[in-house]
Structure formats: C-alpha cells, structure tokens
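SAMPLE LOG
Freezer: B-3
Tube label: C17
Construct: single chain, 289 aa
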Amino acid sequence: MGPAGGRGVRSGPLSQVDPADRKQLDRLLRQARVRPKKSFGQNFLVDPGLRDQVVAAAGIQAGDEVLEVGAGAGTLTVRLAGLSRRLVAVELDRGLARILRQMVPGAEVVEQDILTVDLAGMFPAGGEVVVGNIPYYLTGALMRKLLDEPPRPRRISLVVQREVADRWLGNGGWSLATVSVQAFTEPRIALELPAEAFEPRPRVGSALVVMEVRDRPAVGVPDMNGFLRFAEAVFQFRRKQLQGSLARVAGVPGAEAATRLAAAGIDPKRRPETLNLEEWTSVYAAFAS
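STRUCTURE (predicted):
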C-alpha cells in the first residue's frame, strides 16, 4: 500500500498489521511518523492475549453498534471490526486517525475529542456497547458524558488505571465516582492488566471494568442531576461526620441535621464514604426539601 498523504506505512496492507505486536506497532508508528503523546495519555495495549480478552469481555453481538473511545493505533479496533453491525472509532490524534482509516476501512473513524462528540446524534436510540483503553484524566468527564443523560449505552467496557477501577467499585470506601457509576451501572472488574502489557509502559497497573447499564437509575429520585450535585457537595467534606457536613451543605444547625439523619435511619457520626446507594437516597430525601 502506498503512503497516506505521502507518509503512510510502506510495508504492505495495513489490514494485515497487528498493532498489539510490539514490533509491528513500533514499525507502524515509525513509518507513519507518529509518536505516542503523553498529553493525550497514550499507552497502547501490546499484549495480544490480553487484547483478545478485553475484546471478548465486551460481549459484542452481531447486531450491536459499538463505540470505541480513544482508538489509538487500532490495537482493539482490528479485533472489534467485523464483530458488530457498526463500529465507530473516535480518535483525537490526526496521525492515528489516518492510520485507522487505512487499517480498518469498515469502521467509521471520527477524528474528534470524545467529549465534544454528539453521541445522541450518533446513537439516537442508545444501546451501543462502549469499548476503550482510556487515560486517567478522561475517566470522570467521559462517564458523565455517557451516563448523565439518555440515550445511554447498553454496556461500557473500559480499561482504566486500577485506582480508578477500585474507586468505581467502592473498594476502600465510596466516593462521588462510586455513587455516579453505581447509580447508573452494575460494574465489575473483569481483568487485571500489568503495566508491561502497554507501550509506552505506564507507572501503574490497569484493570478492565465492565459496566452493565441499568434500565433505570438505581436511585429512585425525581431529579438525578440534583441528587448528584447534592452528593458532590457532601463529598467535599468526606472525612467529616455526616452531621457536620450536612449542616454545612443544607445550611441548618448541626442538631437539626442530626435529627434528620436519625429519622432516616442513618447514624449522624458516620462519614459520607461509608454510605451505600440506598442510604444516599434516604439522606437526599431528608435534606432535599
């Protein structure tokens, strides 16, 4: 295959290149004059066995629509192609997007920041499967974009830093991220990935988190955005006892906050990080009025 824009890979059809192979990835990036960008958090998965497990864990069916976030050099894309009815690969890096168009001609390659993509216009009925190997800095904003408003995906399957995975599952205590993710999904860690499985090698290990998106939020409140804003405000004082933190958030005396918590069946001396979803719902109902 000739060069793309005068700078393409000259070593044969890109469809035959496996970017999960370290040597092939290095040759691909070098010949296309593309280097991993630290500012984009680019760490490519270069263990073929783990790559295949990541793709399998997404549980893609022939009739699915798939959104790949941060497709990069196509490590996952080459395996995702052909599994579904439609594959949309979003990649911000212009050089990598050029490679993707040659490597996976059947994919819809969108050269854009995922946070600015009109997902409702792209998937108006929702129900897509989201797959990706995403950088740390993107996790919070991406989950809000995917989940805060309908239409929502059917499943989200993301490789993230292990710290992020633990936070989503509430391992070691709940956070706003735990509440936000578990209100909309049922998450589980499907696979652990060591740092040496990536190129460039990150400083920490990663995990694959598979999230089944709920048909309706697990929190039965009329205003989900209001509920999440409330939780965010309380978590600003996550190390403080609920009595004090809720008095500040709600603008009521500490004694009144304690009385409301007790009436909701919550010990006023507990801290925000110890509450589960059902308890957060009770606390919100006690202070939302």
